Structures are given as C-alpha cells and as structure tokens.
Amino acid sequence: MLHERVPNLAKFVEPDRVRREVYTDAAIFEMEMERIHERVWIYCGHETQVPKAGDYYTTQIGRQPMLMVRGKDGKVNVLYNRCPHRGSMMCGDRSGNAGEFFRCSYHSWTFHHDGKLRAIPMMESGYAGTRWTRDNPDCNMKRAARVENYRGFVFASLAADGPGLLEFLGRSKIAFDDICDRSPEGEVEVVPNCFRMIQHSNWKIFLENQLDALHPSVTHQSTGRAARDVELEIEKRTGKIPLSYHMLSAFSTVTIEKWDNFQTLNYPYGHCILTGYMGLRPKDPDTLEYERVLEKAYGEKRKEEILTTNIHHVLIYPGLSVQSPLQQLRAVRPLGVNRTLTEIWHFRLKGAPEPIYRRALAYYNLVNSPSTMINADDLENFWKAHQGLSSDGGDWVSFHRHYGRDAEKDGMVETAPNCGTSEAPMRNQMKAWTQYMAPGE
Ligand code: FES
Questions:
Q1: Under a CB-based contact definition with an 8 Å cutoff, are residues 291 and 297 in contact?
Q2: Residue 87 φ/ψ region, left for φ over 0, alpha for ψ in the -120 to 50 degree band, beta for the rest
Q3: Which of 13, 83, 87, 385 is the 20 to 30 Å CA partner of 379?
Q4: For the chain, which residues make up each domain, given as ranges?
Q5: Are the CB atoms for 222 and 184 separated by under 8 Å?
Q6: Residue 419's pLDDT band (boundaries 50, 70, 90)?
Q7: 18: Cβ below 6 Å to ligand 1?
Q8: SS3 category, 171
Q9: Which is it for strands 117-119 and 110-111: parallel, antiparallel or unpaired?
Q10: SS3 190
Q11: Residue with CA nearest ligand 1 atom 3
C-alpha cells in the first residue's frame, strides 16, 4: 500500500545526492519505520537499567511501545508494552518494578516477566468454550522477535529474520568494546536517568550530523571562543587550565583543517566511525592514577592499546551514536517525519577512580546536555535544515564533498586521512537506507 503511494523510491537517492522528500514526506517516514526501524537491531537500553527481577524500563522501537524487563531467571526480556486483552498499555510510566508479575490496571490480567499469561480473573467460567485458552499464544504479551545482549548493551529486532546482532554490528562493535575495556573490570554501569530532547527535524539529519566533521569549527565556534577566553583568564590567575573548559574551547582551537586530518571508516549497514580522539589523556594526577589502576588490571601493553583506541564517534545506523572514550551514547527514537527524540545516556567505568567518572559527567553536561550551547547550536541547525528542505527552494541535498575519492576495501569505505570532512558517511548511510527500503520479494 505504502509503496504504491511512494512509487519509484529508487529515484529519490543517487550515490552523491538525495531528494528532499526523503526527509519531509510522511509516507516515506512510515515506510522507514516499517522497513528499517521495525526490522533491524535497535538499542533498547543497558542491562543495568533493570538490575533486579521485575525491574522494567519502557522504550520505543520504531512506532512500537516496548518494555525491557528482567526475569527471575536473570534474563532481560523485551516485550511489546501492550496487554493482549483489550490492548491497554501495560506500563504507563518510564520505569519501575513489576513485583512477582505484571498486572494490567484495566481488568487485572496478570503476566510473567517473559510475557506469558499467568492468570485471568475467573478464567474457567468466563472463557469456557471460547478460543481464548491458556495455550493460545495470543493470550501472552507479545515478545520482540529477537533479543541479544552485547557486553551489557541490549538490542532487539522486531523481525524474526535478518543478520544476528554481531553480524549486524560488524566492526562497529568496537564502540562497546572500547567503552567496556576502559573499565578495569571490563564492565560499565548506566547512570540512572538520561536527558531527553525532542528535535523538530527528521531523524536522519541528526545521524548525518554525528560524523559531519565540517561543522564543529563553524557551528560551535562562538561557544568555543567564549570558553577559550575564560580558559585563558583562569590560566592567567591560577596558572592552570581546567580540563572541562578544554572540552568546549577545543571547538575553536581545532580548525577545519585539523578536522580534515581525521578519518572516517564506513561499514556495511550504514555504520560509520569518526577517528580523532580529542586528546583527553592529560598527565594530571587523576589520569595517572587511572592509568595505574588500568595497568594493574590489564598489564602495560594492553593498557596502551586501550587508551590509544582512536575513536571520536561510532554511529550504529539507524539509531545509535556512541562516544566511547567519554562513556556516553545517544539513542535516536523517531517520533514523526519532523520530530525526533534523542536520549542521552552516560556510564560509569566499573572499578575506575571517581574523577574519571566526573570527567565523563562534565562532558555530558557541557557538550551533550540540552542546556549546553553546543547542543543549542546543533538544534538550531537541525531545525533550519528541516525548514529549508520543506521549501520549494531546491529538490536535492548534496553529498558531493570528496565524492569519487572513496576507497572501497573489504566492504568498507575508508576516507583518506586528509579527507575527514568527506561526506562519505552520509553517502554510506543513504546507501544502507536504499538497501533497507527496497521492496521485499
Ligand atoms: Fe488489560 Fe483488560 S486490557 S486486562
């Protein structure tokens, strides 16, 4: 049906440009939810969000309200947040503990943590002779077709077929290895609660921005300069520069030319990595103590490997952006063709000294939170991009920068080291989009 309303979808995307309707057409958005978000592996949450049996956390996959719940067997289940009786949402709040079982607040049907029906009031007398019997699977809360957990990060797919999680992640799984390996115990735990932000723009605009190395020294220049002025003032007074100011001032001191020296690695399924770690390995006592703890846990060689992993962002298409060296991620939940929710989470490295957590928290607050000027500048760009694309001022979005210079190797497009500002990641994301959106057999 939808495909009939959006004929010749292939004409919307060319290798170096995309038609604006891809960002603004409500029918295309519906098709994206059906063919991409409600089929591929989507990040639900971290297992430490539901530490005890009965703990649940509500989330969204595509257009579907879902919940992640820890069972008595310790397993994390992902269920549709819907009662099979008359369709009421089972959990109306963000999180909580279901106790021994879920109880629907409408007519008191109860369900085990794996979604199986537990009891219906007066079931024998009320349902005798009907098709609503205990062994009817429709009596259970529906489960996500597939759930997998990689190093504590829980993903679900609503499609029974398709690649497994590790095959889907491919080399982008380094996001989770890097974030966990930086912990002396090899594990992270979520810091409860996240920032939630609704952007008035299409979901793909946010994802494209994550590996857009051309914009930071332009869009964030004024914030970087203001931070640099304060930083210099503090240095004059105290002789020291606080690390947190550097997180902001770097936006003015790292020029476009320097960003261009970084590199992007573009993988199958639309995943991409931007290299160019911001140099957060100072020689202050806190960092040296952390390095000592890490060396004790892993040995000198492995410690060096861990601390020199060269990642700025890992984008896991179509719904996750991970900044592993600073233990944070942003999950993307599309709400409509021009509305996108992002959840911004950060993590503690288990066994690492407290100041290392405080550093991640500073970055979380200063760069990624809704209240920072960095985010405000990005949000304005996203809104302006969506407004411009909704106009008749032009039909195409250009991804031509460094087009024709992408070197493909083992299914991966690696930009040359001096082409960090290439639009190869956007081309790679749209290539995956086209493959996902192609009509099935
Ligand atoms: Fe849930 Fe009736 S809708 S018990």
A1: no
A2: left
A3: 13
A4: 42-150, 170-213+260-437
A5: no
A6: confident
A7: no
A8: helix
A9: antiparallel
A10: strand
A11: 86
Q: How far is CA 40 from the centre of its chain?
A: 13
Please say whether the beta carbons of 102 and 80 come within 8 A: no
Tell me the pLDDT tens digit for each residue of 55-92. Answer: 999 999 999 999 999 999 999 999 999 999 999 999 99
Task: Fill in the amino acid letter for 320.
Answer: L
Mean pLDDT of 299-313: 92
Q: What pTM, to 2 d.p., does this model score?
A: 0.94
Q: How far is the CA of 110 from the centre of ligand 1 (A)?
A: 9
* Fold that domain 170-213+260-437 belongs to in CATH: Naphthalene 1,2-dioxygenase Alpha Subunit; Chain A, domain 1 (3.90.380)
Largest CA distance in the chain: 85
For the CA of 120, the closest atom of ligand 1 is 4
Which pLDDT value is given to residue 178? Answer: 96
For ligand 1, is residue 91 a contact (CB within 6 Å)? no
| C-beta separation of 386 from 201 below 8 A | yes
> Edge-to-edge strands of the sheet including 17-19?
13-14, 17-19, 396-398
Model pLDDT, residue 280: 63
Q: Angle, nearest 10°, between helix axes 221-238 and 373-389?
A: 170
The dotted CATH code for 42-150 is 2.102.10.10
- Is 411 a residue whose pLDDT tops 80? no
Q: Please give the average per-residue pLDDT across 45-63, as a whole number.
A: 98
CB 359 within 8 A of CB 367: no
Q: At what angle do helices 243-253 and 221-238 cross, to 10 degrees?
A: 130
| d(C-alpha 68, C-alpha 94), whole Å | 11
Cα of 108 from ligand 1 centre, angstroms: 6
